[in-house]
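User: Can you help me understand a structure? I only have the sequence.
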Amino acid sequence: SGLRETCGPIKSRLIALNVHDAVLRLVEGSCDLLIAYHHESQPIQLDANRYEMMPLGRELLAPYVKPNATGAPTYALPGLAGQPQPYLAYAPGAYLGRAVDQMLKQHAAPVHLDRIYETDMAEGLKAMALEGHGIAFLPASAVRNDLAARKLVSAGGGLETSLDIRIYRERPAARKAKGPVEKFWSDLHHRLAGA
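Assistant: Let's start by predicting it. Here is the structure, written out as tokens:
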């Protein structure tokens, strides 16, 4: 919103895709900008000679669950081998799912989860968690209001990972640059440099 003050009105269209498909759109030239998560275990493979990137921020990915009547987590991690906790998971191949899988593999203690539901979208997992169906690993920004309202609580500390939020574009020399995109990129660069 702050960029509208310097750029003026911005005409845009948001297309929500998994990271792989979004990167393909950028490479094919069917989109001008790509905003995506980046995790060190799952780097986005773009040629730095052809594409440039700016960091926009960081996001925490952590486990959340609906609280019980006393406010405690309905289900808690790490769970027990004989009693795994219901797990609301990202579908195989989903970028956030791969980041969660990597984090769980690297965790010092075993985590016992029973995968009962899958989807590509964090909002779908959040809806199921709000209904009380299990534990979902969600971006903190997606659950901020639900945590404040005590509709969701942490399902266990120590099981979290940090993601970068990045914006990518094709370098202007690689293809004829569009004026509004150039202005937006330049204004965003100046705004981030001054932050």
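Now, to help you interpret it: The longest helix spans residues 179-194. The beta strands are 33-38, 51-65, 85-90, 113-119, 135-139, 153-154, 161-170. Let me know which part you'd like to focus on.
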